[in-house]
Amino acid sequence: MQESKNCELLFEYLRSILYDAKIETLNIFDLDEPYRKLGQGLQFLENAIGEMKSYSEALSHGNLSVDTPPRDNFLCENLKNIHANLNHLTWQAKQVAKGDYAQTVSYLGEFSEAFNTMTGQLHEREVSLKEEATREKAHANMLESYNQLLMQLIDRSNEDILVTSVDHQEILYRHQRTSGDTLSNELYVLCIRHLAEKNADPFQGEQAYEWIWETEDSLHRIYRITTGLMEWQGQKAYAHIIQDITEEKQREQKLTAEAYHDSLTGIGNRYFLIEQMEKLLNSKRQLTFCYCDLDHLKYINDTYGHLEGDWYICHFVHTMKKFIRKEDILARIGGDEFCLVLEGLPGTIARERLIDIQNAFDHTEEKPYPKGFSFGIIEIPANHDKLTVNDVIHQADYAMYQQKELHKQAYAPFLT
């Protein structure tokens, strides 16, 4: 029975050591002499387990500065290894934080893989950021040099230059060749209006960085403006390079007038007729085409001189204009050859009108010679088959010659 009591005390003590939060103490003198040494051993175990629990609790809370248990506590050996690994890992993490991405871990299994992957990615990110920083620095240096170059070019430029903020609220820079406030006011308003219209257009898509457009001010000056999105002193802005092209446009209009109009009469010439007729033929509209040839122009030139011949030509055009509509096309395609294009007017009415013109031409302005012209008419129906301008002219010319022969016989007594 005495043996059973000693075993009971020792077992309960061991159980309390292993499972109880608060360990029941063992009075060594409650044991018989042969069991006291075993009780002392359990007391040593209680102390070792207590040290292990306290040590593991400190480590679990991240307290790496905790004192390590004595070397004779064999239960804490693995915890000491973990403690040492955590201390080294903490040092490695601090090195990584300083930018040392060469740190690797090889003693913590899956954590090692995660740590090494992280440092690899951080290294790649650092390389990428350094490359980006290098590019940004180069870009900033380039912008600075560009800005310096731009300012030099602006100072030497013959164009007006206006730089506005992207919100259109502020003029950031103005370079004006001429005096006055036109550039800062009306042209500024025109630029802002153009940008508003461009941004509101759903078909513009993403806005281009540079585009060219033209506008006209209240004084009818015409400007060609190159607008570009740029960076101006650290902020996004629009630069407008403004050229006054009024004289250029006037020269273009003069050249166009010379290229498409007869210098003597001011009406269209052969090039003008061909261009207009090609558009009308492509539109498939109903047309009446009239080919007119002045009678005996050569006789007038030879007999009365070319100034009289010029008057004869101009008198014909002046008379013709009195009877045709504003939208009708009248062109001189040769010395004494003219074409009249009447849209939407039947051939019968066109014929009556040309007869009226013949009468008016002959009976105004008394001259010592008869005045007249011959004409031929062809009708071109709507939705007609494909025709060329030359086809139309040849057909009308052929129709005109029938009347021309009759006129030659009629005028023969007067021109001998």
Written description of the protein model:
It is a single chain. The chain is an alpha+beta fold and 416 residues long. It has three domains: 93 residues, no CATH class; 89 residues, Beta-Lactamase, CATH 3.30.450; 154 residues, Alpha-Beta Plaits (2-Layer Sandwich), CATH 3.30.70. The protein is 55% helix and 16% strand. It is built from eleven helices and nine strands. The strands form two sheets. The protein has a five-stranded antiparallel β-sheet with strand order 2-1-5-4-3, with helices on both faces. The radius of gyration is 53 Å and the shape is rod-shaped.
Question: Which features would summarize this protein structure in a list?
Answer:
single chain; 416 residues; alpha+beta; Beta-Lactamase; 3 domains; five-stranded antiparallel β-sheet; diguanylate cyclase activity; Diguanylate cyclase domain protein; Rev_trsase/Diguanyl_cyclase; Diguanylate_Cyclase; Nucleotide_cyclase
